[in-house]
Amino acid sequence: MKDHIKAKLAECVSFVEVQFVIDDYMAYYNNQRYQWHLAKLAPNEFYKFVITGEYPLDVPKIPAHPVIARKPEELGCQLYQKNTDS
After folding, report:
1. Do the Cβ atoms of 29 and 43 come closer than 8 Å?
2. Residue 35's beta-bridge partner residues?
3. R_g over Cα of the chain
4. How far is Cα 41 from Cα 69, in angstroms, rounded to an integer?
5. Higher model confidence: residue 31 or residue 66?
6. Across residues 42-59, what is the average pLDDT?
7. Burial of 84 (0-12, 13-18, 19+ CB in 10 A)
8. Concatenated DSSP letters of 29-85
9. What average pLDDT does the chain have?
10. DSSP symbol at 3
11. Given a cut of 80, is residue 18 above it in pLDDT?
12. What are the Cα distances from residue 51, in Å, to 36, 48, 73, 82?
């Protein structure tokens, strides 16, 4: 976990509080924290960009559509599907 939430975690006195701090950080990371190596998008925005091909930011120079280098099966897709089908 990132250093800047260590102080928040240290103040927690129950599991529910720890879970809230971690869930809050995960929501921030996946939805608001833009990342240079993900076409300057947050992870969830980048996922939508890969799936739809529509870049969500209004910029003059839109990055090229990412090329998926591996097949879903190579990334554990089959394992995930088996676990969710049960």
Report:
1. yes
2. 41
3. 17
4. 19
5. 31
6. 88
7. exposed
8. HHHT--BGGGTTB-HHHHHHHHHH----S--SSPPPPPPP-S-GGGGTHHHHHHHHH
9. 83
10. G
11. yes
12. 19, 5, 17, 22
Tokens coding 11: 């103040």
Give dist(CA 40, CA 49) in Å, integer. Answer: 11
Of 71 and 21, more confident: 21
Contact 66, 50 (CB under 8 A): yes
Averaged over 35-48, what is the pLDDT? 90
Residues in CB range of 1: below 8 A, 6 or more apart: 9, 22, 25
Q: Who contacts 35 (Cβ-Cβ below 8 Å, separation ≥6)?
A: 41, 42, 43, 46
Interatomic CA distance for residues 52 and 75, integer angstroms: 20
